[in-house]
Design goal:
- This protein is mainly α.
- Helix content is 80%, strand content 0%.
- The protein has helices spanning 2-20, 24-32, 38-57, 68-90, 93-113, 123-140, 144-153, 158-182, 188-212.
- The longest helix is centred in the C-terminal third of the chain and has 25 residues, at 158-182.
Amino acid sequence: MEHYWIYIIVAIASLIKGFTGFGFALITLPLLINWYSPKELIPVLILCNLFSSVIIVLQKKERKLVDKQFRTLIIYGAAYTLTGVALFKSISEDLMITILGILFIILSSISLLGIKYNARLTPLTFKIAGAFLGFLTGSVSISGPPLALFLNAAKVDNQQFREIFSWFNITTATIAIISYITLDLLTLETLKITGLFLPILYIGSFLGKRLNH
């Protein structure tokens, strides 16, 4: 019976990911942690995010959507993903669950209070944001909500939002996966779970993308 709940959670998260461009790890991680350990689940979610982001960027574009300042954000995100992976490897699962709990409380509070970032964005701001978001990706895989807030402050449109989000995920996830392989954190069980999720993820992302269009 538990497998049905797991598939339902992944399907809903995939649909939202395809529609908005983010949210897959945010939805799945706190729910699937009932059946999987964080260190087992986070590499799976990063692999799934990579797969779904590739689906999004493969769609036809009518104009250039990622300019120089957002390329800087992505580059710094990729570089600092390595520091997040280092933390992921070194901390215990109990401490990781505590960190995740605090992070979800902060994100929920920001959402409920409607907090928005309205300060002027400078080149340094994009570098700092990229570094912070990359660190979150490598350590807990949940960089979506903070990145969404940042892109909202940058006043990007819907197409830019999805494209920047997807390229950020592709770049940081690739770096994270290479690091996981190097540090022997990517196991056969990780690949098995990912293989079970991918068909549902593909269908959900495709349908979500069509709904967005």
